[in-house]
Amino acid sequence: MLVGARESAAGTTGTAATAPAGRPPGAVVASLMLGMALVALEGTVVATAVPQIVGDLGGFSVFSWLFSGYLLAVTVTLPVYGKLSDTLGRKPVLLFGTGLFLAGSLLCASAWNMAALIAFRIVQGLGGGALQGTIQTLAADLYPLAERPRIQARMSTVWATSAVAGPAIGGLLASYAHWRWIFLVNLPLAALALWMISRHLVEPVRSPGRRGPVDWAGAVGVFACGGVLLFALVQGGVAWPWLSAPSLGLFAAGALLAALVVGVERRAEEPILPGWVWRRRTIAAVNLAMGALGLLMVAPMVFMPTYAQSVLGLGPVGAGLVMSVMTLSWPISAAFSQHVYRRIGFRNTAALGISLAAAVLFSFTLLPHPARPWQPALIMLLLGGALGLFQLPLIVGVQSTVGWAERGTTTASVLFCRQVGQSVGAALLAAVANATLAARLADAPVAGLPGHLDDVAKALEQPGLLPQAAAAYLREAVAVAVEHIFLGATAAAVAALLILLLVAPRRFPVLPDQEQ
Fold this sequence. Notes:
Elements lengths: L25 H23 L1 H8 L7 H24 L1 H20 L4 H29 L5 H29 L4 H4 L1 H15 L15 H20 L9 H23 L8 H4 L1 H16 L1 H13 L5 H29 L1 H18 L10 H26 L4 H39 L13 H6 L6 H35 L14
Helix pairs in contact: 1-5, 1-6, 1-8, 3-4, 3-5, 3-9, 3-17, 4-5, 4-8, 5-17, 6-14, 9-10, 12-16, 12-17, 12-19, 13-14, 13-19, 14-15, 14-16, 15-16, 15-19, 17-19
């Protein structure tokens, strides 16, 4: 029995499209997967080549903005592209984003210093935001509800494959060619994606509906407000203290811009951030739950490699393997989730997944010290399985509650909240880790430890330079800090569970035309 028979049917204020008559041709699916691969590979490929890039261009103190700048551009443009795809159609937005990503890749390959490379990475991110959100929306447009888990599982497989293959590709290109090739290889892939999309993608027939003007003032306001606030989160506690003048000034500017955006959006005929995204229980609950997911993902994705190298003594490859096993179980679990939510519904399946994730995250704090490498690897494997049950039912479910004219905005709001949650989580959990390490160093019973947090990383890279007792104490301090990080991630998982149980409706209001 399909989930449509179990979830409640409800209307919506949006304009629906006719249901897809059948599966889209393989060329369309291939073009979507190719476009998603461009986004998924980018971060992991670049990360591997950072030493070569810094050695050639300099700018060691700011190289982290190769990733932060890209992430900021993707995040703040997601709601803009989502609304534009609802207004202008998916295909023109996807073509524009692919072309912009291609142009950004070409510019990155020609960068003459670190500042230029960071600026061109932001250009790439402006294109990546269009790719990431629009492809997820098209997956819902082109497939009926019964087939949607299959294409979403394929998208998850693209991310999983990229997580494993990206570092290897980046390392090979940086070692045997030149770091500029990590951007040049995007050119034929992006060009092929452009050709396949323009030639083969035919959007479903759209029911007649009034098309309002594009809210360009709102788009600029959202971009500016999101950029300032995310910049404050990324730099706070790193480039300057949280309570310093730069941090307080940026947050104040962000608050003023947010108030301005609210005023502009209230008067707009077709706002970029419409109020119904938060007035509808289903969408609001999924947005909040996905924000919690972004926050908790900081623990395994950012701090697990540090734990594997600094505490377990593994090399970069071994640490990468410990983390990457999560990306193997995630798509398998996501593909299996359809058999669960067809029986118990979208909300209950997601609640089951996040409950398991909370238990798995908490189990990390029970590991012995020192742990054996297979133990955190097993935790990561189980975590991927739990999160596959959590994420995909929410995305498929929320997309099935809206019509064509609202699906781009809805999908973008979900992805936007996850990205914001990741940015907030990176700031909060890094503060937890720093506070734990600072307290352990201040109360250290042994001598020879680093006197400042900035020196901890250097000491961990060369533990032989420390007295044996000091090196052992420092490894234990890092282990305790990471345990606190996973406790914070556990709290985020519990928060997501409470959101689903208290805010989300028991049955998602699936539209009648989606029950196929």
